[in-house]
């Protein structure tokens, strides 16, 4: 909550600074041009903020979680698109109002005669394409790797937009203080991405030298992969977090798969457990011992860092048990574990859960059966955990199951700050 409030406060403070420099620069006589300049400034600020959200800075990620940061990044991206479209329309129509040209020819004239405008047009075109492929109807039809490659052009758009702002931005050039401010905004945003997405992963992988040490089938379609390396006790990983794993084989080195840790880090090895849901996860079963691994992370806020109560409820569905099992190993205080699966044979890692629950004095409930009737409805949860409103609840599983349980917890009156989950569509 503190990190989220701090992030909002930083954004609000920057909005105030942008408005100050905007008013200090003075107004044009044309209202449309004034609106165009203002929307352009807010578009630039949102673009920088958007970069910060996906920089994967450890301090933010541990406290807010990649799922929420990614969601905010998505909606900020659409805000950037609309702000820059408004900027282009207002500016073009504003100048057209003062000349004898129609809006289309006015835009062409600006691109040909004003330094930096052509770069801005290209940047806007890139952002429109990225916005279209990021819409849900298109995103569902694209492979992740294709979408990600297209998305990388965002950085080209950022550079083009920044050079446009340097060349013709009235607020940017109105004073040395405004110039210094905008250089600082873009510098912090780009440096955050450079450090979080490139420098930190490269440094950690060079330091730890990750390798596959064992591959253990857990069932017909689930496998655990053990990872060793150097100085793993210095790796700031916690139970409940995940990594983006890239196994450096000739046919898989280019593909990164997000998998949660299925055991609490012990300083000697890491373990991931995955269900064969696609080519990447299915190939893990055939991974050779000694294979080099490039791991990005740890990521996620699904950890004991956010506990508010001494006792907890851990609710897992299907392969979502992996971070839950790791959390049970790390948590102190009494815990109740509820594991929801279709049948006993789907209960991956159940033997380990039994042993851990016995060692830690936790209660373990295996809930089996079809989806309906809902066996995690409010009455059932109250029966299994009578004092559930006095506990932290950690939840991980398939999206439909998670949505249903969150609704049940809300109906039971469990305070929102006691419910902890991440949408593991990327990290499950």
Automatic annotation (TrEMBL):
It is a multi-pass membrane protein. The chain crosses the membrane at residues 7-28, 34-54, 75-96, 116-138, 150-168, 180-200. CDD domains: FNR_like_3 (cd06198). It holds the Pfam family FAD_binding_8. It is found in: Membrane. Keywords: 2Fe-2S, FAD, Flavoprotein, Iron, Iron-sulfur, Membrane, Metal-binding, Oxidoreductase, Transmembrane, Transmembrane helix. Residues 205-305 form the FAD-binding FR-type domain. GO terms for cellular component: membrane. Its cofactor is FAD. GO terms for molecular function: 2 iron, 2 sulfur cluster binding; flavin adenine dinucleotide binding; metal ion binding; oxidoreductase activity. Gene3D superfamilies: Nucleotide-binding domain of ferredoxin-NADP reductase (FNR) module, Translation factors. PANTHER family: 1,2-PHENYLACETYL-COA EPOXIDASE, SUBUNIT E, NADH OXIDOREDUCTASE HCR. This is Oxidoreductase. It comes from Streptomyces cyaneochromogenes.
């Amino acid at each position: 909550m503190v990190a989220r409030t701090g992030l909002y406060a930083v954004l609000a403070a920057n909005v105030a600074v942008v408005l100050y420099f905007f008013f200090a620069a003075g107004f044009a006589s044309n209202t449309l041009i004034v609106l165009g300049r203002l929307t352009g400034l807010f578009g630039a600020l949102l673009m920088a903020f958007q970069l910060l959200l996906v920089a994967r800075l450890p301090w933010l990620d541990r406290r807010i979680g990649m799922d929420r940061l990614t969601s905010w990044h998505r909606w900020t991206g659409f805000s950037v698109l609309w702000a820059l479209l408004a900027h282009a329309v207002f500016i073009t129509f504003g100048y057209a109002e003062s000349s004898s040209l129609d809006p289309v020819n006015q835009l062409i004239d600006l691109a040909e005669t004003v330094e930096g405008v052509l770069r801005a047009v290209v940047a806007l075109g890139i952002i429109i394409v990225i916005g279209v492929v990021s819409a849900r109807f298109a995103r569902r039809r694209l492979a992740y790797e294709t979408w990600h490659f297209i998305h990388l052009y965002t950085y080209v758009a950022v550079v083009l937009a920044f050079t446009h702002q340097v060349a013709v931005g009235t607020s940017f050039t109105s004073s040395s203080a405004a110039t210094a401010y905008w250089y600082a905004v873009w510098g912090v945003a780009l440096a955050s991405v450079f450090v979080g997405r490139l420098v930190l992963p490269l440094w950690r992988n060079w330091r730890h030298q990750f390798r596959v040490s064992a591959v253990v089938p857990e069932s017909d379609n689930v496998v655990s992969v053990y990872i060793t390396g150097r100085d793993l006790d210095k790796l700031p990983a916690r139970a409940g977090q995940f990594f983006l794993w890239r196994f450096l084989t000739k046919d898989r080195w280019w593909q990164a798969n997000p998998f949660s840790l299925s055991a609490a880090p012990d300083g000697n090895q890491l373990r991931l457990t995955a269900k064969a849901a696609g080519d990447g996860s299915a190939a893990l079963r055939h991974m050779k011992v000694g294979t080099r691994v490039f791991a990005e992370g740890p990521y996620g806020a699904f950890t004991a860092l956010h506990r508010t109560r001494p006792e907890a409820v851990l609710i897992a569905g299907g392969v979502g048990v992996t971070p839950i099992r790791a959390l049970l190993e790390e948590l102190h205080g009494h815990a109740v574990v509820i594991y929801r699966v279709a049948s006993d044979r789907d209960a991956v890692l159940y033997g380990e859960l039994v042993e851990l629950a016995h060692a830690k004095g936790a209660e373990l409930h295996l809930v089996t059966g079809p989806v309906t009737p809902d066996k995690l409805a409010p009455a059932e949860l109250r029966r299994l955990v009578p004092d559930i409103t006095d506990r932290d609840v950690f939840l991980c599983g398939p999206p439909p199951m998670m949505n249903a349980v969150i609704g049940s917890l809300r109906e039971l009156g469990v305070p929102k700050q006691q419910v902890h989950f991440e949408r593991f569509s990327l990290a499950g």
